[in-house]
Design brief:
Elements (H helix, E strand, L loop, with lengths): L4 H8 L6 E4 L10 E4 L13 E5 L9 H11 L4 E6 L8 H9 L4 E5 L4 H30 L6 H8 L7 E9 L6 H20 L6 E6 L4 E6 L3 H14 L1 H4 L4 E5 L3 E2 L4 H18 L3 E3 L6 H6 L3 H22 L3 H10 L4 H8 L3 H15 L6 H19 L7
Parallel strand pairs: 2-3, 3-4, 4-5, 9-11
Antiparallel strand pairs: 1-5, 6-8, 6-9, 6-10, 7-8
Helix pairs in contact: 2-3, 4-5, 6-7, 9-15, 11-15, 12-14, 13-14
Length: about 400
Amino acid sequence: MAVRFWEMYEETKEQFKLRIAAGKAGMDTVVSWVHMLEDETIVSRFHGEELAITTGMKAGNPDWLLKVVQGMAKDDCAGIIINTGMYLKEIPGDVILWCDEHNFPLLEMPWEISITELIQDYCMRIIDQKQFEKKISKAFREAIQGYWKEADVRQVLGERFDMEGIFQAYCIYVKKTMEDEFNYNQAVIRLENQFGLWKGNDKINASYGIIRMEDFLVLILNNSKEKVFAELPNLILQSFSYFTKEHRFFLGIGPRASHIENLSASYKKARTAMKMSIGTGKEIIRFDEMGFFKILFSVEDMDILESYANEVLGALEAYDKAHKSDYVETLRSYIKNDRSLIRVAEDTYTHRNTVNYRIQNIKKITGCDLKNPEELFPYQVAFYIRDMAKKTIYINES
């Protein structure tokens, strides 16, 4: 989707007489903008993905260029083009060696080529691509809401995607603060760059789209291989490693769906899986592996679930409140330990006779014998709902 350095190079290398001096392995990186660079202090203002062009005016300082490329690489910039011939006759060997070792793209362009024309050309390509990406994002928003039949949606998506092919949705939620915005944007950049690397290594031949919703990301794949289906979750985890280390990353994966008309179903199921990921604290949840929880987490109106939990646990919770007892947690342990009084006693640090006394009282209060899984199931569901309510996060889908 984004403009990649390698694509721009291939399309303009003859026009601008470009030559790759080092870092060829890193050429699949995304380029967000192009800057003229003659003062190293400007690097501190870069945010990642920038491509720089320099004449090497300050190359009289032997360490200047090396420090520039090191600083740019540290900030996840796309690469640098050296306009050789005037201030810098040739690129220093230590700079070439460092860029090769760190896969940082270093290109050479002869002095007679206009820097202004190259910057103008590249920036126009980036602007055009960003406008196209906005159209793609808008069309996908319509498609995942079920409006795939709209003529403008089909026209825009049909330019890049196989409308009758296989689609799959991934929903990514990150608990972030205002201070995390830079790291979040960098994670999205890394994810897009990973797609470029995979394409370069023939690991992925799928078209993809990344949609930024208000509170989460939606990644859509079109015609991905089974191998990608297996490996992509780990690639996403690597891209968002800053947040996974602090357990603030959650991923829901929808099933593969044939034809654009079924993309909406894959998206809704991915969103449901993401909700379970948030609710359980588990990083990755696939909808197809959710079992009974498919039903529970698909309910949009939390009031319905809360009403059910109150209906099932209300009498016991009221008794606990009135008598300062702990029967609700005793019942939870009783279910968790498969009705074993011994294990409940160990779990709650309570004498077995006391546990037995409490269970008998619970049976009287609830009016249920609690003898088999069928009788315990409503209480198990109610406990799931109570746990969900504690971790429920409002997610804006606009």
